Fold this protein.
Amino acid sequence: MWDWFPIIFFPLKILVLGVAMFFAIKWHHDQAKKK
């Protein structure tokens, strides 16, 4: 199991971070538009 764990875990972590960053930027953009 531990042989393929990093192969799946690292791209998944990068994907989650990318999605989180996208939503954070989108949220800030929407907040700026409201003001």
Notes: The mean pLDDT is 93.
